[in-house]
Structures are given as structure tokens and as C-alpha cells.
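Re: the 456-residue chain
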Amino acid sequence: MANKRTLVKHALAAVTAETDLLVQGWVRTRRDAKGFSFLEINDGSCLANLQVVADAGIPGSEHLPRLTTGASVSVRGSLVPSPAGGQKWELKASGVVLVGEADATYPLQKKGHTLEFLRSIAHLRPRSNLFGAVFRLRSRLAYAVHQFFQERDFVYVHTPIITASDCEGAGEMFRVTTLKGNIDQQAEADFFGRRAYLTVSGQLEGETFACALSNIYTFGPTFRAENSNTARHTAEFWMIEPEMAFCDLAGDMDMAEAFVKAMARHALDHCAEDLAFFAKFVDKDLHRRLQFVVDRPFQRVTYAEAVDILLASGQTFEYPVAQGQNLQSEHERYLTEKHFQSPVTVYDYPRGIKPFYMRLNPDGKTVTAMDVLVPGIGEVIGGSQREERLDQLCENMRHHNLKPEDYWWYVDLRKYGTVPHAGFGLGFERLLMFLSGVANIRDVIPYARTPGSAEF
């Protein structure tokens, strides 16, 4: 153990006293007493700090006065039973090394800080209890996403970040160009010989791989040039997008529901300490809501039935409810929290409010779209069965003012061995908001990109 660093979480979980451990981290607090000092050390591996007892006279003790909050430190010593309440072990230091000082301007002193302030020091906020917990959860859930799909024999596909295709048809895309001056000059002069953009989704490319490898998923960054400053939108975020060949809408809904349940269960099973922190300081209803999703069967209702329920509810909503209009978060939460009292999957949406790639139903008015709604958030997943019929796909494109020739490679899938296929998209940050109770999407991504702000 002499030359091996010990993580704080391992030291705190020790079952026997150990000697000659090396613990490295950052000082949270220091308290001095006659002849010794108490240091609270955290290395980010867990929420709890490790208490270090450093006697005067040990090697490096002359630097103890400079071990202020924020300083980095390397401590060698032995784990001994702790007489202090709330901890089983503490580290009896045999030597202390000051690695890096933190001067008096260090902004994360031991006091409460607002989320707005912490966003302004995003390079330091992971050292706070809240954001340490958030980003440990983010890391663990990224692992859980891959585990879920890999265990079901999905192939992980990296789709392009730069694309010429507007998957959603909304036009809210970031242009990528090497042109100088007037970039609206002939697109043929640009780097790619045509207009190119940051991707809003890897779905279309994902479909091409599903039509070769059966079941695939993507997990990567996406970009939307949407001028929105709400707590639910950022310009850069991560998307999880599985696509399944030989799959219909019912199979798509089954997979989406299984995924949401698995993520909630994984968080409960593997992130207990951080979830307990969120439940205490962020959302006191968190555990009940996650257990609610794990335990309750999901209900399924058509869009038309959902609107009728909302219209008959007698509730006053900020946004009016009407057939043919998108459901808002308040409508979705009413369905899950009050009417059904369970997670809900709404399906068969009006054609006019959904993108071109969704399969048209026999009624000619609705498409095989579905949204998974959960309490506390509303929609966490949106998906559909894709339109696999060549003639209908081309008609859908023209209906949305798109040219089939611009998507020739996508159209080819319907010419060469077309099959029914389906998939869904899930914003990773929305999932993290649901699993942590954190209310603002800016606080579950390391560096938020929002209109007017690309700091750090």
C-alpha cells in the first residue's frame, strides 16, 4: 500500500484498520487544537469527507497553517477507529505534503452558495457537495445506459456530429463553415461543398445501421439553435437514441418503458449516498417518485384520449388544452401525478405536430408516435415507429416541405429490403433531472451552452 493512492470512499468503507495509506485530495476545512489539527479531506470519490488527525511535529506539519479550504494535500498515515460521531474511521497522519495552495480568493468557502453563483464558477463547482453528487450520478448513469443496451445485444454506433440533414425539420441548426465574410455565398465553395450543420439527432444515420445490424443505439452530443432560456433547454446536450429493426410501435413502447424503469432502479441500487443527499437538500419526494416508477406498471393512452381527460379535468392550466396542440409539461404531469397516478405512455399523435419520418396510421390523421411521461418531469422519452413504405415516406417529406432527393440515402432504405423499424430519443440531461430532482438542466451538464453564454 505504500505507493498506492487510497480513495476516500475506500478508506471510509474499510473493515479493519490499515497502515501506511496514501490519501490525496482537497481540504474542505481545517480545525486547529493544541498540538494537532483536524483536516477534512475530500477527493471527489464520494460525498463524505475523511477526517485526518495531524499531530504537530510530523513531517510536513510546518505547512499545516497553509492547508486552507481548497488547498490540495497528500497525506500518509494509518486508519484508526474514530471516536467522532457519524464516521467509523479517521486517518492518523504520519506525514503531510502541501501539493497546491489556495489563497484567500478561493470562492468555495464553507457556506451556502446559490446555484446562480455556482454556475458562474463552473470550473470549480464540481468540488461542492451538490455538484460532486450530480456528476458522480451522471457518470454512473452513463455506464448504466451502455449496460442496458449491451446486455440486450444492441450495437453501439457513433453517428456524425457534422451533418447536412435536418432530422427534425425545424431548421434550428448551427451552421458549420470555413467561409469568411459573407457565408451565404455559393455553398459549393464551403469546406464540404454544401451547407453543413451540427447535428440535432443521430436518428436518421442510426436507422441505416439498424437496417443492417438489427438493434443499435447512439449516445452522443447534439445541438439545437433554439433561442430558449427555460430550465429545460440548452443548446448542447447528450442524446440516447436506440433503433430497432423488425419492431413496431408496441415494441418501441415496451423498450422505452423498460429503459426508464432500469435507469431508476440502477440509481436506487448504486447511487444511494448521492440520492440521499438530493432527497435531503433538493427534492424531498425523490425516493418516493423513483420507487413509484420502478414499482408501477405504465399506463397507455392515445393522444386524443389524453386530451379528452385534460379537457374534462376541471383544472386550470397555464397553457390551454386543445386537440391538435402539443401537450405541455403541466398537462403531462397532471396525467401522471393526478389522473393515472402512474407513469403514462401517450401514443398516436396528430400528424401535423410530428416530423416526417413517423409512420402514418390508417386514419391518415395520426402517426405512430409515442411519449413516455413520468411524475415530476413530464416527457422523458419521445419515439415512434418509422415510416418504412417508400411512397408514403416521400409523400410525408413533401407534406413537410422537404425534398426526397435531399435525403436520397435515407430513401434508399425503403428501396432495398425495407422493414418495419422503430426507435426513440432520450435527452440524457432530462433523465438526470428526473433521477436527481435537480430542476434546472444547466445544473446537470458540466458546462451549459445557452443563448448568449458559452463561458468556460
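The two ends are 38 Å apart (CA to CA).
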